[in-house]
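Whether sequence alone determines local backbone shape is best considered at the level of individual chains. For completeness, the protein is quoted in full, as a sequence line and a line of structure tokens:
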Amino acid sequence: MLRLLRTVIDRLLQAGLILSFTVLALCVIWQVVSRYALGNPSIFTEEVSRFAVIWLSLLGTAYACGRLEHMAYDMLAEKLQSQALLTHMRVVAALVLAFSAAVFLYGGLKLVLRAFEVEQFSATLEVPMGYVYSCIPIAGACIVLYQLAILVDPASFRRVNEVDEAIEHVKQELPA
């Protein structure tokens, strides 16, 4: 059940990241084309690209936490073995969970509700800022769920070494 939940969260975050990055890339391309080729710069792309960067960075943070690829002080963790490493992972997960629950989830929800309450809108698109800010509690909820999963089963989480993974993939693809 825990693996299924992690897989669902991973897939949703991946989709959100792909969408945010695509929106960002299209906005930048359109801004360049409209400014230099058409001579009439588009006014909405700057704001949309700013919102896409916000969503991209916060969802990316949550995704990195789930893959243990976030910024980490890992000198101690590299020296630990078996049960000591699992205990260390649980302690770090509890600290990250407390911070994420307090700042991202609680604080983010308060910010979103306040933005809707005061009817704060973006300058150009006039989009309610509560929608823009909603990425904060969404990312916080994902981080909290990941940390809970680490607390329950830290052994199922392993840091991904992308270089080793790529080398292994190439070895499997190349004939012997």
Summary: The two ends are 38 Å apart (CA to CA). The chain has a mean pLDDT of 87. The CA atoms of residues 92 and 147 lie 9 Å apart. DSSP finds seven helices and no strands in the chain.
